[in-house]
Amino acid sequence: MIAAPLPAAKITLGDEVFLSDSWRDLRGRCVGVITNQTGVTSRLEPIVDAIKRNHKICIKAIYSPEHGLRGDRPAGSYVASYSDDRTGLPVYSLYGATRHPNAQMLAGVDVLLFDIQDVGDRAYTYISTMAYAMEAAKQFGKEIWVLDRPNPIGGMVEGPVLAEKYKSFIGLYPIAMRHGMTVGELARLFNDHFGIGSRLHVIPMRGYKHDMLWPDTGLQWVQTSPNIPEWDTAIVYPGTGLIDNAGINNGTGYTKPFKYAGAAGLDGQRLGDALNARNIPGVYFRPAYWTPMSGFWKDKQLSGVELVVFNPRVFPAVRSAVEILAAVRQINPKALAIKTDFLNNDWGTDALTNGLREGRSADEILNGWSAGTRAFESLRARYLLYP
């Protein structure tokens, strides 16, 4: 029995534009593909398989980011290089012994193709992998083509702009936490404004608009990493994804990663009431109880809130995280256990840590970085590819 066909997508992905037309511009040059399980067409065919079906395209190697080629490795876990039995190609890890493609990895490759689905958050390492690949392309005289993909959480811009002193692999450049850009647009920004200077070619999507959320594209979601199982997890990730180093469990290790916020002994009803009184757009905070099944919080009964996002178009994820931490501080300050260096590194600023310790309100903390966010929005506008 043959499976029913997938519904047609409402946009054309950059990899599909490449496969149908742009590959001819290779003019016989060989490619290496930076990808993982998310690098698929709208029909869910992996980009590497699709390339190998076209015998006129020379493919030499695959490169995998954090979580590995198949996305099954935990966050921060070492990923080794190996030879892929299915394709016969070497799979070079960019989250193992090195994070920059080196000369040996790039031997015989003329053009690097980047085809990985991002989630729209600065603190997600796939865009850093792209930037490092662009640097390597510059260093070794290669071209890099970015096959553009949607920002699943749309074009909203939120949160602090990274301060230079907190530059790391989870935040290389001074961009807002929720940047509202596609990977292709980010590549243009990194290459031009931040001075990478590689021979960059972005292959845009067709039919895409910035106000689209993932369901508007008609595409099927492929889990981007172990804790982003569904597209709507990406909606909350720019907020709750970065509260764990303040001592607040965010649902990782449980059934709904990043959709919870709480700790042992916290009054979930009081927290929910306090947050709902703040009238944060698009979200309701439901008092909740859960016991993580893995990780640091394993087997500990926790209480707090579940984030029920009923209007993702207006939901401010970064603001919600600040509101949660400020409310916890008000209700039960002992529940906060701030790891200063880690929290500052995650957020790319010390403004949150200092604000929480100095008793500033959520509004005061948010207003403190609003000028930087507006400046980034102005810069961002120069690199956008879509209406």
Please tell me about this protein's structure.
The chain has helices spanning 14-20, 47-53, 126-140, 183-192, 214-217, 231-240, 268-276, 317-331, 340-347, 351-357, 362-368, 370-380; strands at residues 30-35, 58-64, 82-83, 90-93, 111-115, 143-147, 158-161, 176-178, 199-203, 260-263, 283-290, 302-309. It has 387 residues and is of the alpha/beta class. Helices cover 28% and strands 16% of the residues. It is globular, with a radius of gyration of 21 Å. Helix 3 (126-140) links the parallel strand 5 and strand 6. The model has no long low-confidence stretch (mean pLDDT 95). The chain has a seven-stranded mixed β-sheet, sandwiched between helices. It folds into two domains: 14-222, 3-Layer(aba) Sandwich (Rossmann fold); 231-349, Aspartate Aminotransferase, domain 1. Helix 6 (231-240) crosses helix 8 (317-331), helix 7 crosses helix 8 (317-331) and helix 8 (317-331) crosses helix 11. It is built from twelve helices and twelve strands.
